[in-house]
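Please describe the entry underneath.
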Amino acid sequence: MIDLEAIKAQRGNKPVPPGTYEESLAAMEQALEEDAPPSPEHIKINNRLVAWEAYLGIAKVKSFPTQLHVGLNDVCNARCAFCQYAPERSTANMIKADDLRRAKWLKYVRSFFPNAGLSEPLIHPEIEEIFEIVRDNAPHINMHLTTNVSLVSDRLLPVLVSNLNLMIISLNAARKETYEFLMPPLKWDRILRNLERIQEEKARQGRAHPELQAGYVLNKHNLDELPELPALLKSIGFTGCRIIELKVPEPIKSRELLTKDDVASHDKAHALKKFEEFESECRIHNIRLTQPLPAF
């Protein structure tokens, strides 16, 4: 028997979820029994049950995850100077399309992220089929993808645009020479052209999505060009970006990585000045910061 009043006292000012736990559990049990075609109501039912299970501290849950993060593979085609990915560490293990085809419960999940670890998801040999399977099983799910966008092919392009809600692009530079130093062997011109192709395909399909946001691992090599980033992003259809402070990677045998000497915070006054210029340019070009700037 759940002592709700005692739990309320423990939770303090934390809001009580709507309805009751018993109602939320019954709604889930009924939905599972009926096994109706996917609808937004399945996501709402699951969200309510998740909220109650979290509020009550229930360990053995009856809900499904609200967000599903899946490591489709552990292979990457970039050798970023700030990332300790190394091909010799890859196992070649991957999620198969058939694994997701069986996951009919995806209709209860709010968001799907085919990213985990240090991999590039678009390298997966079944990636087009995977996106379409997830969309078939869960037509109301939000699909978010983090990618370096180097592997966008003519075949993959319409699949990405028709299925994704958000793409976070690992950009990490506003200039060609910096990009190709930080993210070898990827080529700046190819990346920009692929981003243009995404915008062209969105226009062809008449879709506002996927929204494009940039990821930018801040270090001393890309700090000075940070104020140039918003204008670049605006010109290729981005709406937002997040600036992440370099976390110095552990050394690996196969190549040289950035070290503590490459962090952007050695000259804090200079870094803060660049932040001010960057924020001003973001306002001018209507680029949204999706998380606070690093605090030095």
Notes: Residues 188-205 form the longest helix (18 residues). The radius of gyration is 22 Å. The CA atoms of residues 124 and 289 lie 30 Å apart.
